Amino acid sequence: MRLDQAEFIKRETTILVVGPENADAFRKYWEENGLPFTGLPDPAHTVLKLYGQKINLFKLGRMPAQVLVDKKGVVRFVHYGHSMSDIPDNASLLRLIDLMLLKN
Predict the structure, then answer these.
(1) Between these two residues, 20 and 35, which has the higher pLDDT value?
(2) pTM tops 0.90, yes or no
(3) Which of 7, 55, 69, 93 is in the most buried spot, having the most CB atoms within 10 Å?
(4) CA proximity to 100, closest of 66, 75, 65, 63
(5) Terminal CA-to-CA distance of the chain, rounded, Å?
(6) Is the predicted pLDDT of residue 92 greater than 60, yes or no?
(7) Biggest alpha carbon–alpha carbon distance for the chain
């Protein structure tokens, strides 16, 4: 997503990354990696539970999930991955965002 950050910005799309770490560990990771996204530490798994994201202990944690929420707060798309390689590519997400923008 970092490579296409300008395309997401052009579509007025904010990328929010939710992580399981506490605030200090999350901040450290964010700073070390220079991530341009908004980050939200979620050590109590509050957001995870809200959106139904799965945990797989055999794969050591959360399974990837992508959720597109429109400006009114309505969830328009959800993808629950089975591994870190099971994530929609940026082009697919951008097309979905374009469709959302056309409908609003």
Answers:
(1) 35
(2) no
(3) 93
(4) 75
(5) 24
(6) yes
(7) 41
